[in-house]
């Protein structure tokens, strides 16, 4: 609730509001003030906030000042679009990161590890939005292989058309997720390989593959799984950059447009939704760690 108070008052001190955004040169001052009265923007800030909280408690998310569409209906329509893009990208990125991270960690002094570490450093140095633009320009404009915006072409609803639109934003998200995840897995595996029980296993004749699969991977996977719970807000609120650049009709692009227009009912709803997911994600992480690690429960 503290987050909503801070964000609400920050929105109110902005130099313009949603009515200024939709006002046209042809509108006179009386028309603009009438729009403010209709949308309740003429009331004191405290009163506006109290009204918003009361409606929120009743389950009434209100309507967008710009589009006049129901916010609840917009969320119901957009959350699945974001989830279908973000969840597969994040899960596949985790799977790839675990495989690469464990493999290079088990070959600590090899040339392969140096190459992987160099590639990770290179990918981290490349601006994410620039990589998205590069894919758009090469594969969407020069080669004209993939569409550059939306989920479907006009008049098309087929699966093949969907996957053509899906490929570029999905690839950008994989590029975004992978470096940090590989570093996380690699570092965690390095720590495990230095522990005493690994030395004991080697002394007992266990092979490196056996140690990697039966011991190191298990201890590395547990924090990875709990980390997924903490990623819940990001997964369901979307990627602002990817969804905006590829015109993907999800939560990220919806939020960006609302911020640009100072559409405070939409902005506040998305912030509240995101804050709730942060709490829920942390709770799920704690519960999953409690279930996966018997030492915690004991």
Structure write-up:
The protein is mostly helical. 76% of the residues lie in helices and 0% in strands. It contains 15 helices and no strands. The chain is globular.
Write the layout of secondary structure elements.
Blueprint: H1 2-12, H2 18-22, H3 29-38, H4 45-57, H5 71-105, H6 111-125, H7 128-142, H8 159-193, H9 196-203, H10 208-230, H11 232-237, H12 240-245, H13 251-261, H14 264-292, H15 294-297
Helix pairs in contact: 1-14, 5-8, 6-8, 7-8, 8-10, 10-14, 13-14
Q: Give the N-terminus to C-terminus distance in angstroms.
A: 35 Å
- Uncertain runs: none
Helical proportion, percent range:
over 70%
Mean pLDDT across all residues, rounded? 85
Structural class, from helix and strand content? mainly alpha
Q: Helix count, per DSSP?
A: 15
Strand content: under 5%
Largest sheet: none
Overall geometry comes to globular
Give the helices and strands as they follow along the chain.
HHHHHHHHHHHHHHH
Rg, Å, rounded: 24 Å
Number of strands: 0
Summarize the structure.
With 298 residues, this protein is mostly helical. 76% of the residues lie in helices and 0% in strands.
